[in-house]
Amino acid sequence: MPIIAPSLLASNFLRLEDECKMINQSEAEWFHLDVMDGRFVPNISFGLPVIEHIRTATTKVLDVHLMIEEPEKYAEAFAKAGANILSVHIETCRNLHRNIQQIKALGMKAGVAVNPHTPIHLLVDIIEDIDLVNLMSVNPGFGGQKFIPYTLTKIKQLSALIKERGVQVDIEIDGGVTIDNAKSIINAGATVLVAGNTVFKSTNPIDTIAALRKL
Ligand code: DX5
Ligand code: ZN
Predict the structure, then answer these.
(1) Residue pLDDT, tens place only, 45-78
(2) Chain segment 96-108, per-residue pLDDT in tens
(3) Is 63 a residue of the active site?
(4) β-pair type (85-89, 192-195)
(5) CA of 65 to the centre of ligand 2 (A)
(6) Of 75, 89, 117, 207, whose CB has the highest number of CB atoms within 10 Å?
(7) Ligand 1 centroid from CA 103, angstroms
(8) 174 C-alpha to center of ligand 2: Å?
(9) What is the spatial order of strands in the sheet that 61-67 belongs to?
(10) For the chain, domain boundaries
(11) Residue ranges near ligand 2 (ion) with Cβ within 5 Å
């Protein structure tokens, strides 16, 4: 069964405590937290103080997706804020291997996020060092965009690479996941589904999370 990671970006920020309670009661195992800096992506979301508060509202896994330049400057602060998994974008890291070691030394699981234009073969020399690949299925920066179909090919390529190396690496699909396309995404080899609008804009988010999980 896939891990479901609701993206808080689509939640009602005025009622964040209730939204956290809802996810706590659901079958979702992770909270997906999208941090944006207005430089790497053309949008600004939320940051450390919000995540510190979310940490007090749940014991579930906090999966932090950094869409920021120079993520190495902030890794320690996100560890202190309570992140369990920290993903950095390959496109922002000139010393990716060093950044991954830093994240792991801080006690977090390390993820690498890749944009839709970034080929899977760029991961061949880092795949054995990481816990997760966040395969972006939309261009990062906004919720509610349409799933890019070519992502299915990239999931298969990544899945083959992971099998070939015999490593345990989660494949997380981020952007445009719906009840209609989730099955094909899982069949291609994804192990984690991020879902923002599909969960938070549905009439019954808890049922929607359960439905995504059982597909
Ligand atoms: C986009 C973010 C996603 C986003 C997904 O930059 O990384 O996590 O919140 O939202 P939906 O599921 O609505 O496409
Ligand atoms: Zn994300």
Answers:
(1) 999 999 999 999 999 999 999 999 999 999 999 9
(2) 999 999 999 999 9
(3) no
(4) unpaired
(5) 5
(6) 89
(7) 23
(8) 6
(9) 3-6, 192-195, 170-174, 132-136, 109-114, 85-89, 61-67, 30-36
(10) 3-214
(11) 34, 65, 174
Q: What is the mean pLDDT of residues 112-137?
A: 98
CA 209 to CA 27: how far, in whole Å?
A: 7
Q: Where are the alpha helices (DSSP H) in 82-204?
A: 96-105, 151-165, 182-188, 197-200
Environment class of 64 (CB within 10 Å of its CB; exposed 0-12, middle 13-18, buried 19+): buried
Of all protein residues, the one whose alpha carbon is nearest to atom 9 of ligand 1 is 143
Q: Using 50, 70 and 90 to split pLDDT, how confident is the model at 89?
A: very high
Of the residues 114, 145, 151, which should be mutated to test ligand 1's pocket, given the most ligand atoms within 8 Å of the CB? 145
Name the pTM for this structure: 0.98
Domain boundaries 3-214, CATH class: alpha beta
pLDDT tens, residue by residue, 148-191: 999 999 999 999 999 999 999 999 999 999 999 999 999 999 99
**Substitution site in 13, 142, 148, 172 for ligand 1 pocket (most atoms within 8 Å of beta carbon):** 142
